[in-house]
Amino acid sequence: MGIHESLGKSDEWYTPPYIFQALKAKFDLDVASPGPRTVPWIPARYHMMLDSLEREWKGFIWMNPPYGCRNGIKPWVKKFIEHGNGIALVPDRTSAPWWQFTAHNVEGILFVSPKIKFLNEKGIPGKSPANGSCLVGIGKKAISALGRASSLGILTYPTKF
Hints:
The protein has helices at residues 17-23, 74-83, 97-105, 140-148, and strands spanning 27-30, 44-47, 61-63, 86-91, 108-112, 133-138, 153-156. It is an alpha/beta fold. It has a seven-stranded mixed beta sheet, sandwiched between helices. Helix 2 (74-83) links the parallel strand 3 (61-63) and strand 4. Helix 2 runs parallel beside helix 3. The termini are far apart.
Protein backbone atom coordinates (compact mmCIF):
# COMPACT_ATOMS: atom_id res chain seq x y z
CA MET A 1 0.00 0.00 0.00
CA GLY A 2 1.45 3.39 -0.96
CA ILE A 3 1.88 5.99 1.75
CA HIS A 4 -0.78 8.14 0.10
CA GLU A 5 -3.24 5.29 0.60
CA SER A 6 -2.66 4.93 4.31
CA LEU A 7 -2.59 8.46 5.72
CA GLY A 8 -4.24 8.43 9.11
CA LYS A 9 -4.82 4.69 8.97
CA SER A 10 -2.95 1.66 10.22
CA ASP A 11 -0.26 0.14 8.02
CA GLU A 12 -1.04 -3.26 9.60
CA TRP A 13 -2.85 -5.44 7.08
CA TYR A 14 -2.63 -9.21 7.15
CA THR A 15 -2.59 -11.91 4.48
CA PRO A 16 -5.96 -13.70 4.36
CA PRO A 17 -6.05 -17.45 5.11
CA TYR A 18 -7.12 -18.45 1.57
CA ILE A 19 -3.63 -17.58 0.30
CA PHE A 20 -2.04 -20.16 2.62
CA GLN A 21 -4.77 -22.69 1.88
CA ALA A 22 -3.98 -22.39 -1.84
CA LEU A 23 -0.20 -22.68 -1.31
CA LYS A 24 -0.55 -25.81 0.86
CA ALA A 25 2.91 -25.16 2.28
CA LYS A 26 4.43 -25.08 5.72
CA PHE A 27 7.08 -22.49 6.40
CA ASP A 28 10.00 -22.60 8.81
CA LEU A 29 9.89 -18.87 9.47
CA ASP A 30 7.62 -15.85 8.97
CA VAL A 31 10.19 -13.04 8.74
CA ALA A 32 7.80 -10.07 9.00
CA SER A 33 5.36 -11.46 11.51
CA PRO A 34 2.90 -9.52 13.63
CA GLY A 35 3.00 -12.57 15.90
CA PRO A 36 1.36 -16.00 15.91
CA ARG A 37 -1.47 -14.81 18.17
CA THR A 38 -2.32 -11.95 15.81
CA VAL A 39 -2.36 -14.07 12.66
CA PRO A 40 -2.68 -17.69 13.83
CA TRP A 41 -3.43 -19.05 10.33
CA ILE A 42 0.10 -18.41 9.01
CA PRO A 43 1.60 -21.91 8.78
CA ALA A 44 5.06 -21.03 10.10
CA ARG A 45 7.01 -22.83 12.81
CA TYR A 46 8.70 -19.61 13.96
CA HIS A 47 7.68 -15.96 13.79
CA MET A 48 10.29 -13.19 13.63
CA MET A 49 8.72 -9.98 14.91
CA LEU A 50 11.63 -7.64 15.61
CA ASP A 51 14.83 -6.67 13.81
CA SER A 52 14.17 -9.08 10.95
CA LEU A 53 16.46 -7.30 8.52
CA GLU A 54 19.37 -7.49 10.99
CA ARG A 55 18.87 -11.13 11.94
CA GLU A 56 19.68 -14.36 10.11
CA TRP A 57 16.85 -16.06 8.24
CA LYS A 58 16.84 -19.85 8.18
CA GLY A 59 14.89 -22.42 6.20
CA PHE A 60 11.84 -21.98 3.99
CA ILE A 61 10.48 -18.52 4.72
CA TRP A 62 7.22 -16.61 4.31
CA MET A 63 7.47 -12.86 3.82
CA ASN A 64 4.70 -10.27 3.64
CA PRO A 65 6.90 -7.19 4.19
CA PRO A 66 5.76 -3.73 5.25
CA TYR A 67 4.46 -1.79 2.22
CA GLY A 68 4.04 1.64 3.84
CA CYS A 69 7.08 3.76 3.02
CA ARG A 70 8.25 4.63 -0.47
CA ASN A 71 11.00 2.16 -1.37
CA GLY A 72 10.72 0.68 2.13
CA ILE A 73 10.27 -2.72 0.54
CA LYS A 74 13.70 -2.64 -1.15
CA PRO A 75 15.76 -4.00 1.78
CA TRP A 76 13.18 -6.73 2.34
CA VAL A 77 13.25 -8.05 -1.23
CA LYS A 78 17.04 -7.76 -1.35
CA LYS A 79 17.39 -9.92 1.77
CA PHE A 80 14.70 -12.31 0.49
CA ILE A 81 16.64 -12.85 -2.74
CA GLU A 82 19.94 -13.24 -0.88
CA HIS A 83 18.31 -15.85 1.37
CA GLY A 84 17.10 -17.75 -1.70
CA ASN A 85 14.43 -20.01 -0.20
CA GLY A 86 10.83 -18.97 0.27
CA ILE A 87 7.75 -17.12 -0.87
CA ALA A 88 7.11 -13.39 -0.61
CA LEU A 89 3.88 -11.49 -1.09
CA VAL A 90 4.62 -8.13 -2.72
CA PRO A 91 2.67 -5.47 -4.60
CA ASP A 92 2.82 -5.89 -8.38
CA ARG A 93 4.33 -2.49 -9.09
CA THR A 94 5.99 -3.78 -12.22
CA SER A 95 7.58 -0.47 -13.27
CA ALA A 96 9.28 0.12 -9.90
CA PRO A 97 13.04 -0.55 -9.89
CA TRP A 98 12.77 -2.79 -6.79
CA TRP A 99 10.11 -4.88 -8.57
CA GLN A 100 12.25 -5.21 -11.70
CA PHE A 101 15.16 -6.36 -9.50
CA THR A 102 12.87 -8.87 -7.79
CA ALA A 103 11.43 -10.24 -11.02
CA HIS A 104 14.91 -10.84 -12.45
CA ASN A 105 16.03 -12.73 -9.36
CA VAL A 106 13.15 -15.07 -8.47
CA GLU A 107 12.20 -18.39 -10.01
CA GLY A 108 8.43 -17.95 -10.11
CA ILE A 109 5.86 -15.17 -10.01
CA LEU A 110 2.15 -15.71 -9.39
CA PHE A 111 0.09 -12.62 -10.26
CA VAL A 112 -2.95 -12.88 -7.97
CA SER A 113 -6.38 -11.93 -9.30
CA PRO A 114 -8.66 -10.51 -8.14
CA LYS A 115 -6.81 -8.10 -5.87
CA ILE A 116 -6.24 -9.41 -2.37
CA LYS A 117 -8.40 -7.76 0.27
CA PHE A 118 -6.04 -7.82 3.23
CA LEU A 119 -7.44 -8.21 6.73
CA ASN A 120 -7.29 -5.61 9.49
CA GLU A 121 -6.44 -6.41 13.12
CA LYS A 122 -10.05 -7.57 13.68
CA GLY A 123 -9.92 -9.96 10.72
CA ILE A 124 -12.19 -7.79 8.57
CA PRO A 125 -11.23 -7.45 4.88
CA GLY A 126 -10.31 -3.97 3.72
CA LYS A 127 -11.50 -2.33 0.54
CA SER A 128 -9.92 -3.28 -2.74
CA PRO A 129 -6.36 -1.92 -2.75
CA ALA A 130 -5.04 0.38 -5.47
CA ASN A 131 -2.42 -2.17 -6.56
CA GLY A 132 -2.60 -5.87 -7.15
CA SER A 133 -0.27 -8.36 -5.51
CA CYS A 134 1.97 -11.17 -6.56
CA LEU A 135 3.59 -14.09 -4.83
CA VAL A 136 7.23 -14.53 -5.75
CA GLY A 137 9.18 -17.67 -5.02
CA ILE A 138 12.71 -18.99 -4.91
CA GLY A 139 13.59 -22.65 -4.44
CA LYS A 140 11.95 -25.99 -5.23
CA LYS A 141 9.44 -25.85 -2.34
CA ALA A 142 8.37 -22.36 -3.39
CA ILE A 143 7.86 -23.28 -7.03
CA SER A 144 5.83 -26.34 -6.03
CA ALA A 145 3.65 -24.23 -3.71
CA LEU A 146 3.12 -21.56 -6.38
CA GLY A 147 2.09 -24.32 -8.79
CA ARG A 148 -0.48 -25.61 -6.28
CA ALA A 149 -1.81 -22.06 -5.89
CA SER A 150 -1.91 -21.29 -9.60
CA SER A 151 -5.72 -21.11 -9.49
CA LEU A 152 -5.21 -17.72 -7.79
CA GLY A 153 -3.94 -16.07 -10.97
CA ILE A 154 -1.29 -16.24 -13.66
CA LEU A 155 1.92 -18.13 -12.89
CA THR A 156 5.06 -17.27 -14.81
CA TYR A 157 8.65 -18.41 -14.62
CA PRO A 158 11.06 -15.53 -15.36
CA THR A 159 14.06 -16.30 -17.51
CA LYS A 160 17.38 -15.15 -16.12
CA PHE A 161 19.72 -13.62 -18.67
